[in-house]
Amino acid sequence: MKLTNAGQRAYERYHHLVYTLLDTVSEDIDPDAIPSVLSITTPVDIGTHLMPSVISSFNKQYPNVEVKLFASDQVMDMSEADIDLAIRVGKLQGQAESHEDVIMKTRPFLAASPEIIQNIHDGMYPEGAPFIRLLRLPETKEMKLRSTDTMLKLKSVAAADNAIAAQQMAYDGLGATLFTGLPTKPYLEKGRLEKIDHVVMPDIYIFASWPGRRLTQGAKALLDLFKKELKRQQLDG
């Protein structure tokens, strides 16, 4: 058999809906069933530096499951985008809900080139130090320097959609940069990009989220592998 052009278009539009329906029915019949397709979304830096190893380990255990990764710093509507699992980085609004799992707490920090750091300490920015922020973190106007107990004014000059872009901008001397504190990135490099000492900032969290009342077996297995990889990266760091 060979599909007509109309049939091919229909297949491309609807086949994932059919597979999702079959997976849902299978899970209701057998709660331990692993779906044939697993869709996850993560921030760009996590998707780039952590997930390849996680997905590789998952594929060895479940070779018949297709993993679809959507790496984006924009929050996606999980139900509308048909996402099974989301790894988020940011502030928690309150107590974790029944469909959320707090993985770890992390402390954001500022980093900049030594020249920018010296200019900050010398008070060269009366209107606020040039500052590159990450879109998924709250915009901050000032931070407290613990060492001198003074407030550091910040002036946004750009907003990067992931830590790698922000790191490159800091390397180019455009200003200070806010990082999430994740163990994978950035790799600070003395003389190029250094942590600004003792900036007081609120903690943020890495947490998992999923639609519905329970986590599917496939998503649970991948989340467990993600936690192991995150712990390994922390130990290596």
Automatic annotation (TrEMBL):
Pfam families: LysR_substrate. Coiled coil: none annotated. Residues 37-230 form the LysR substrate-binding domain. Belongs to the LysR transcriptional regulatory family. This is Transcriptional regulator, LysR family protein. It comes from Grimontia indica.
